[in-house]
Specification:
By secondary structure, this protein is mainly alpha-helical. About 60% of the residues lie in helices and about 5% in strands.
Length: about 200
């Protein structure tokens, strides 16, 4: 299969997962600053781009996070890091899912990881996924805590928000279209800071 065919197949799979939202100039600028083109990353790591595209289509590596307007498949700079840590692509799924005590949750997180949609984290690892989940849950639950509104409560809340802020990038307009609404940064960081200013 030619490179054109694999690129086309990958673009079609990407559209199936993300919908057909066009990328704006601002989206392209954001993505180019946060991610790296698959071809460039493969050149740096001495890998064949088509081999990596095949692994993505076979659901053994995650899809690109974005397709830039020029068709470049944009991926995180550490795309290969987890597979390397796991001992290779063949061992990645078992290694990844083992980080969750519940196999069903592990499988669901693996599928989410393969979608390429974990663009909500600077670095996508089982540990950062779990930490993000616990932080967003804690931030969401904070308003119902008995001492809500107190100075101590506000300090605890802002410590959670600040930690989440270090894990998450800024997102771009394209993300709000494909995810059908506000991002976790919008709801758990920006909105919380606006509603509950620091004491």
């Amino acid at each position: 299969m030619s490179e054109t065919d694999l690129k086309q197949q990958l673009a079609e799979r990407f559209s199936e997962v993300n919908g057909g939202h066009p990328m704006t100039d601002a989206d392209d600028v954001y993505v180019s600053a946060q991610f790296v083109a698959l071809e460039e990353l493969c050149a740096v790591h001495g890998r064949e781009a088509d081999t990596v595209r095949r692994l993505m289509l076979e659901q053994r590596l995650p899809l690109p996070g974005y397709l830039r307007s020029d068709g470049a498949e944009m991926v995180p700079a550490d795309l290969f890091a987890l597979a390397d840590e796991a001992g290779g692509v063949d061992l990645l799924e078992a290694w990844f899912t083992a980080h969750w005590a519940d196999p069903m949750t592990g499988k669901a997180e693996w599928n989410a990881y393969l979608s390429g949609q974990y663009v909500c984290l600077h670095s996508v690892t089982p540990a950062t996924i779990q930490r993000k989940d616990s932080l967003t849950t804690a931030i969401g639950a904070a308003v119902n805590e008995p001492d809500a509104g107190s100075v101590q409560w506000s300090k605890r809340l802002h410590a959670l928000v600040d930690e989440l802020d270090t894990l998450e990038p800024a997102f771009t307009g394209y993300d709000r279209l494909r995810f059908g609404g506000p991002t976790s940064r919008d709801t758990c960081i920006n909105a919380v800071r606006a509603r509950f200013p620091r004491p």
